[in-house]
Design goal:
Layout lengths: L2 H15 L1 H10 L13 H6 L67 E6 L5 E4 H6 L3 E8 L6 H4 L6 H5 L2 E10 H8 L7 E6 L6 E5 H4 L4 E6 L2 E2 L9 E3 L12 E7 L6 H6 L1 E3 L5 E3 L7 E6 L10 E10 L5 E7 L7 E2 L2 E2 L8 E9 L4 E9 L8 H7 L6 H4 L13 E3 L5 E3 L4
Length: about 425
């Protein structure tokens, strides 16, 4: 066979398969307005950049009102969630980072007046200004932050739930700051010390105990997020960044660190952030997240316009290191195929994956499954109940928050192209 003709036929065949996409793109292009200034003033556009008025991706959900935009002061569990369905790449724009503050509005802190004190079981108690911290050797790292309630069963019960509702309490940023181990070494940790207590400058003075081993490992005292100062609702001017651990450990508006020989057992770690089992027992300080992933497109609430080619894409992350593999199933977990990882793969960070799929118009159940560098494999919901020795229907009947739940999330594509939450289907 003539190679040139063969190549031309293959090109025409592939072009026809993507023709529908090209038509869709042409339709979308009609909204363009040559010479438009995006409806913004010169100051809004150029003094500090503003996004296009056609980009309307927003955080929403607060106090269990998951379909509503956040209201002032409503920064509690169920707070404003990251719109993962709109995410591009693996970095979350700082203005779209999820919020759980356990208080009212962020404190209005003048960085020139802010101080960080390190004391307790140290040889030299120290107090740093922001200028002094920024004079020290800095580190820049990519890490996710996640609330332990993310992916909880009380959210996944909603058939119409979007990925923003089920998994929007995780975000990933480029963080810059000073290694906490550097500061602790400068202060001189005394023999017998085994914990630190971090405290914020918010109204309720949120405090969290963290093992000294973790503090000397990879915790960052962060003042930068995605190339600018951390946002006020993310802890401006200073916060802890505790890679791979529950968001509650990432103390915002950080003002003091006390070195101790035991956990403080503050309210958050003694009454709220514990794992209670049906047998009456409870686990404390279950801080590190397991391997996790979720498909962000197609996902709940979206609709496929017609048959043809789609990229199934999503995010994977793990609390103990880097993601090594992601698999995708389009038949409800009967078969799995590797999904290529896209872009850089950082430890304890979101990783984007993509998988080419031709939808034939029939019902399909889409799932992703991640594997981390330690060999941990993301479990199904049924596998989680077996690991924890729970009844098979435990999560379906359980209204309480279950922390660190990393079960596989299925999305069902209906014949009309609509996509529904199918974890309990």
């Amino acid at each position: 066979m003539n190679k040139k003709k063969s190549g031309r036929r293959r090109f025409l065949k592939e072009s026809a398969a993507l023709a529908g996409l090209a038509v869709g793109a042409a339709r979308l292009g009609k909204g363009q307005s040559p010479g438009s200034s995006c409806g913004k003033s010169f100051k809004e556009l150029h003094a500090y950049g503003q996004r296009s008025r056609f980009d309307n991706s927003l955080r929403y959900g607060n106090n269990n009102q998951y379909g509503k935009e956040p209201t002032p002061g409503a920064y509690f569990i169920g707070g404003p969630r990251t719109p993962l369905q709109d995410s591009i790449g693996f970095i979350t724009p700082a203005p779209l980072h999820y919020i759980v503050n356990h208080s009212n509005e962020p404190p209005d802190i003048d960085p020139a007046e802010h101080r960080l004190m390190i004391h307790g079981m140290v040889d030299r108690p120290l107090t740093f200004t922001m200028d002094e911290l920024q004079r020290l050797p800095s580190e820049t790292r990519v890490h996710f932050v996640e609330c332990r309630a993310n992916g909880g069963p009380y959210l996944r019960k909603i058939p119409t739930a979007s990925v923003q509702i089920t998994h929007g309490l995780t975000s990933c940023s480029v963080w810059t700051g000073v290694s906490l181990s550097l500061l602790l070494k400068e202060a001189g940790v005394k023999q017998g010390a085994s914990w630190i207590l971090a405290e914020g400058a918010d109204a309720p003075k949120h405090t969290k105990s963290i093992p000294l081993e973790k503090a000397m490992d990879d915790i960052l005292v962060a003042y930068g997020q995605n190339g600018q100062p951390v946002m006020p609702d993310q802890g401006f001017p200073l916060r802890l960044l505790v890679p791979g651990w529950q968001g509650i450990s990432n103390v915002k508006w950080l003002r003091q660190i006390k070195v101790t020989d035991k956990p403080y057992m503050a309210r958050a770690e003694s009454t709220q952030y514990i794992e209670q089992r049906p047998d009456g027992k409870a686990s404390f300080f279950t801080s590190e997240f397991g391997t996790n992933s979720v498909i962000t497109r197609p996902s709940g609430g979206q609709r496929l316009p017609g048959r043809g080619f789609y990229e199934i894409t999503g995010l994977a992350w793990a609390g103990n290191g880097a993601i090594r593999k992601v698999e995708v199933s389009t038949d409800g977990g009967k078969t799995w195929k590797d999904a290529p990882l896209q872009g850089a793969v950082h430890p304890k960070a979101h990783t984007r994956f993509g998988f080419g799929w031709n939808w034939n118009g029939e019902e399909a159940v889409l799932q992703s499954r991640s594997t981390d560098e330690q060999g941990g494999v993301q479990p199904t919901l049924l596998e989680v109940t077996k690991i924890w020795n729970l009844p098979a229907n435990y999560f379906q009947d359980q209204p309480r928050i279950i922390g660190n739940l990393n079960a596989i999330q299925p999305w069902k594509v209906m014949r009309d192209g609509s996509v529904q939450n199918a974890i309990f289907a």
